[in-house]
Amino acid sequence: MTDPPAPPTPQHSAHAAAVIEIDLDRELGRVGRRIYGQFLESAFFGNIEGGVLDETSSLASTDPPPLRGLRRDVIDACRKLGIPVVRWPGGNFASAYHWTDGVGPRERRARRLELAWGEEESNRFGTDEFLAWCEAVGAEPYLVHSCRDVEEAARWVEYVNYAGSTSLTALRAANGHPRPWDVRLWGIGNEVYGRWQMGHRGAAAYAADAREHAEFMRRVDPSLELVAVGALPPLQEEWARALLTVGRSFYDFVSLHLYAASLHRDGTDDYDAVVSQPRYFEDEIASCAAVLESVSGELGLEQPPAIALDEWNIRHLEPATWPEPRPGERGGAHDVPGLGGRRAGDAPEPTGLRVNRYSSRTLADALFYAGVFHVLHRLSGLAAPVRMANTVNLVNANALLEVRPAGVVRSASYHVWDLYQNHLGPRVVRSRFLGPDQLVSIRQGAESIENAIAPRTAALPALDIIATSDEARRTAQAAVINRHRRDVIDARLVGVPPTAHVWDLGVDSAQAWATNSLDQPDHVATVDRGVLSLGATPYRFAPHSVTILEWTL
Question: Which of 121, 284, 311, 402 is catalytic?
Fold first, then answer.
């Protein structure tokens, strides 16, 4: 048996040794596995057909429906990771979706022009396929209704969850599932504040409609956990007030959607902007939580609903004048030679950009994702914390998994989810970094580029740290991000035992924009360093890296 690889020894440290203090007795909050949730959207850049479903592939399941045609390698990768919860069918797709189009024999289902993304939707992946897929991977399903028809929503709950003897439960049995699916999480609409949604309406109209949907859905199944649509500023307070005034305590969650942006595909070296954008998320989540707490207090509610960050990601933007991106055969986007004439350091164009849905997740993206998880841990003690988060997307379209005819690429982000959801505990404890700060410009999300909103300057600690323990307090963990592109940070760990099991990501990579492919599947991957003796010696946190340390107490 060979020894685990030792971390590379950098040649220099840009800072004197700092200190990381961990106080295992001071609990700050709790996090559940739902914060590591995922998202699938029908008719969306290969999420479903060509992603989880490929009926012509030799890698597809030959089991009876509804599992037939689902990619086995995708199921295996998701099961190995341990996906906690998945949102479906959208997203924008949900606003015009009728669940009855996607049940029954596949060859008899309606083929429709869907109105969110302008694609033809075959409906060969519907309710039973999604729920069977979730069961196969061990994930909790989260279904989203359009909030345009109360009866349709209630009947969908009946089809999925009702245990009695009705024509819909008989239909469910005929479709291969006599017992109820028992889906707890249901969303009532998606971004209905936006004109891009079918059923767009203002705060007062949505509040009344959502309340009626919630009441009749719960008449079918009182145990449902319901997610109502929330909004960003400047609509946020008006939206929350209308929603909670009418709906009172009907909702377990209010949704929040946040997106960051990267311009690296256009030749702009915006590494610092990418890895510092979790601070923008932190500000927006804290603001949303404060609004929910304040409005709930004014209305005399016992507690505010939690936040569902049920859409979030970082978008790779590129000039809209480039040829339309398409998936590369071995992963990522097919790049056309000769494109991308912008020089590093040039200011990006404020308009004329589009999202590349096929570009691979990079190491810099991985640090961004880790930073968002740190935010969710730090804010876990708020009165209205994020209790569920779903990144867009799980499969293809800027996802954890890039599915190609020849196999599945586990992107850099896949390894971040593995590190955090499988190595950290649910109990968040106090941690503190005593060391230098760095002054950075915080990009204010993806829309700030289109709307020419200037970055905000802020001081961030050189190392971003969170600490956790298991429920029994037998183990403790720390996650440490060194966002610096080139600088090593030496830090002494205080309040924990002298030996730790160490995993890290990015330490062995020299390139901030490194990605994985079928040809280089582990270019950006977790490395298990084994149990290391730290003693009183400062630990050397490599540049552009994430490190997890676990102690036995």
Answer: 311
User: What span, in angstroms and rounded, lies between the C-alpha atoms of 88 and 15?
Assistant: 46
Q: Is 311 a catalytic residue?
A: yes
SS3 state at 459: strand
The enclosing H or E element of 76 equals helix 72-81
Please, what's the b/e burial string for 235-258 (b: 16 or more CB within 10 A of its CB; e: otherwise)? ebbbbbbbbbebbeebbbbbbbbb
- pLDDT in single tens digits along all 553 residues of the chain: 445 566 655 545 555 679 999 999 999 999 999 999 999 999 999 999 999 999 999 999 999 999 999 999 999 999 999 999 999 999 999 999 999 999 999 999 999 999 999 989 999 999 999 999 999 999 999 999 999 999 999 999 999 999 999 999 999 999 999 999 999 999 999 999 999 999 999 999 999 999 999 999 999 999 999 999 999 999 999 999 999 999 999 999 999 999 999 999 888 889 999 999 999 999 999 999 999 999 999 999 999 999 999 999 999 999 999 998 899 999 999 865 444 444 334 444 445 899 999 999 999 999 999 999 999 999 999 999 999 999 999 999 999 999 999 999 999 999 999 999 999 999 999 999 999 999 999 999 999 998 889 999 999 999 999 999 999 999 999 999 999 999 999 999 999 999 999 999 999 988 999 999 999 999 999 999 999 999 889 999 999 999 999 999 9
- How far, in Å, CA of 218 to CA of 223, rounded? 7
From the centroid of its chain, how far is CA 374?
A: 13
Cα separation, 301 vs 254, whole angstroms: 15
Where are any strands of DSSP class E within 345-469?
353-355, 386-391, 401-404, 407-410, 427-434, 437-442, 456-461, 463-469
Catalytic residue among 191, 284, 318, 402: 191
Pair 64, 176: CB distance under 8 Å: yes
Written as one letter, the residue type at 145 is: H
| C-alpha span between 38 and 310 (Å, rounded) | 8
Q: How far apart are CA 422 and CA 33, in angstroms?
A: 9
Q: Are 148 and 213 in contact (CB under 8 A)?
A: no
Q: What's the CA gap between 379 and 29, in Å, rounded?
A: 8
Give catalytic status of residue 152 as yes or no.
no
**Residue 500 in contact with residue 549, Cβ under 8 Å?**
yes
Q: Which pair of tokens denotes residue 213?
A: 């949907």
* Greatest Cα pair distance in the chain: 71
